[in-house]
Amino acid sequence: DSGVTQTPKHLITATGQRVTLRCSPRSGDLSVYWYQQSLDQGLQFLIQYYNGEERAKGNILERFSAQQFPDLHSELNLSSLELGDSALYFCASSVEGQGTNYGYTFGSGTRLTVV
Amino acid sequence: GQQLNQSPQSMFIQEGEDVSMNCTSSSIFNTWLWYKQDPGEGPVLLIALYKAGELTSNGRLTAQFGITRKDSFLNISASIPSDVGIYFCAGRSNSGYALNFGKGTSLLVTP
Q1: Count of beta carbons in the 10 Å neighbourhood of residue B64
Q2: Which of A20, A32, B29, B80 could pair covalently with A74 via S-S, beta carbons 3.0-4.6 A apart?
Q3: Can you count the helices (H) and strands (E) in chain B?
Q4: What is the pLDDT of residues B13-60, one digit of tens each?
């Protein structure tokens, strides 16, 4: 157990729908990062939050949004889902805001299947 | 983000063999990290490197931060079946917040 909790583990939904993925960071970590992993693209950085504020944005689609709450858990919202959004979505956490030289701790991921 | 080129894409080796994989970047990085991902799990940090030329070991794993700061390699000695998985390099530049990941090296080890 890495200490980073992601729910749900699996999600199957239809095209056009909206889903919310949840992440609880490791105790004491202030930063949360969201990554998308697909077979052909590897791990793609989506967005980072630090202590409730958006810190950095990567290749995140406009249909996707995220937030970090006062208790530091984070949610990734995916809307108007398309078949191509099927992927593993990982959350990672770290102590510092500008990432940490010690790397991130990853959760076990949410596997999203859009049908 | 910056492009990371990781090679080889996959390796199929016999137990006991040594393994080498590497990663190159189009930009200078100030941190290089190596992760391993098992099926159904998130990546787990293996080794972190912070200085150009640094050579760091973790058991049978050895990684180096290239002196140009644009590359890194990971060696696994005397491989065992539990080394099976996908190995990712990751790097961060001075101006970046997030880690950029390579596309991974898939390692298969036969007994």
Answers
A1: 19
A2: A32
A3: 0, 11
A4: 999 999 999 999 988 998 999 999 998 899 999 999 989 999 999 999
Partner residue facing A99 (CB), from B50, B88, B92: B92
- Where does residue A90 rank: exposed (0-12), middle (13-18), buried (19+ CB within 10 A)? buried
Residue A42 to residue B93: CA distance in whole angstroms = 19
At B47-102, the pLDDT tens digits run 999 899 999 999 999 999 999 999 999 999 999 999 999 999 999 877 666 888 99
Summarize pLDDT for A42-81 with one digit per residue, the tens: 899 999 999 999 998 998 999 999 999 999 999 999 999 9
Chain A residue numbers touching B100 (CB-CB < 8 A): 45
Q: How open is the CA angle B1-A104-B42, to the nearest 5 degrees? A: 95
Is B98's CB within 8 Å of A97's CB?
no
Chain B residue set in contact with A, beta carbons under 8 Å: 1, 31, 33, 35, 40-45, 48, 50, 88, 90, 92, 96-104
Distance of CA A3 to the CA centre of its chain: 15
Instruction: Give the mutation candidate from B35, B99, B100, B106 for the A interface (greatest A CB count, under 10 A).
Output: B99
Residue with tokens 């007994």: B111
Q: Which DSSP state fits B40?
A: T
